[in-house]
Amino acid sequence: MNRNNFFFLLSLLLISCTKEQKEIIPTATESEEIVSFQEIDSDSIIYSVLKIDSLALVDYYKIDLNNDQFEDLVILQNPPKYQADPGTFSRLTVYLANNGTKSFDPVDIFDVIPDDFSSSATSLIDSKLVGIYPTQTGVLIFAFGYPYGSGRSTSLVIKVSGKSINTVFEGDYNYFISLSKLNQTPTLVLRKTAEHWGWVDSLNILLSSYCPYQVVTLNETFKFDSVLTKDYNIENYVFQGYEPYNSKITVAIPKDGAKPYLYQAN
User: Fold this and answer.
1) Three-state secondary structure readout of the chain
2) Who contacts 192 (Cβ-Cβ below 8 Å, separation ≥6)?
3) Which residue from 174, 130, 171 is spatially nearest to 152, judged by alpha carbons?
4) Alpha carbons 54 and 59: distance in angstroms, whole number
5) What is the Cα–Cα distance from 159 to 217, expressed in whole angstroms?
6) Is the pLDDT of residue 38 over 90?
7) Whether the model pTM is above 0.85
8) Which residues contact 236 (CB under 8 A, 6 or more apart)?
9) For residue range 66-122, what is the model confidence (pLDDT) as tens digits?
10) Residue 243: CB partners within 8 Å, gap ≥ 6?
11) Dihedral sign, CA of 26, 27, 30, 34?
């Protein structure tokens, strides 16, 4: 082999190696495409979920729920028979990219986030249907029962932390007042529905049954906090015990928005 032929073959070999190297080692742009493939896969997951249970899709949200750098899913669905009924969705499914899936079906049906509650804490997603709130150890997902005239149907709070997906609250409280202390121990203020007995025009007050606020913490479980409950009611309402409703105690609610007080008839 002469010298010219040798260099010609060497050049071909180098070109071939360079081409193979380019095919094996992804560029920065290709790396981004590989990462974003998770998004394409999540769409496939949504399709699979819908195909399996035949429930109509209401909405879905792609979000990293447990800080593992992978995109998770929250899927909202509705059986066709509920399309014309009250409420908005009747199944909530949480899919963790690295730990499977878990679905939640309410006793009745879920509805939108109450206006008053939505202003008390900032959700990680822009949605009128569910709220996702960050905590020190994960996130809390809120889904609210439908507010019938007789009271709100069952609401749900789900905690996602690491690889676990658990229910921390399931109940029929009518009013979700506020959510706070998310960077410490999440604290939720709830309330049942009071019975109103009418206005006393001469005093500009509304007479109502005793219906105190209930303060609970949402850590690993739903826990009633008697100290916080008493303090909250002393500051914002009246305190005459922990029971959520008592028709034997009458509370006066001033029309001008002043603090309520116990009412004693003359």
Assistant:
1) CCHHHHHHHHHHHHHHHHHHHHHHCCCHHHHHHHHHHHHHHHHHHHHHHHHHHCCEEEEEEEECCCCCCCCEEEEEEECHHHCCCCCCECEEEEEECCCEEEEECCCCCEECCCHHHHCCCCCCCCCCCEEEEECCCCEEEEEEECEECCEECCEEEEEEECCEEEEEEEECCCEEEEEECCCCCCEEEEECCCCEEEEECCCCEEEEEECCCEEEEECCCEEECHHHHHHHHHHHCCCCCCCCCEEEEEEEEECCCCCCEECCCC
2) 151, 173, 174, 175, 211, 214, 244, 245
3) 174
4) 15
5) 13
6) no
7) no
8) 213, 259
9) 988 899 999 999 876 666 667 889 999 999 988 878 999 888 899 999 988 888 889
10) 212
11) positive
Q: Exposed (0-12), middle (13-18) or buried (19+): which is 181, by Cβ within 10 Å?
A: middle
What type of residue sits at position 174?
N
Place of tokens 């190696």: 17
Cβ atoms of 117 and 176 within 8 Å: the answer is yes
Nearest CA among 180, 193, 213, 197 for reference residue 153: 193
Distance CA 193, CA 148 (A): 12
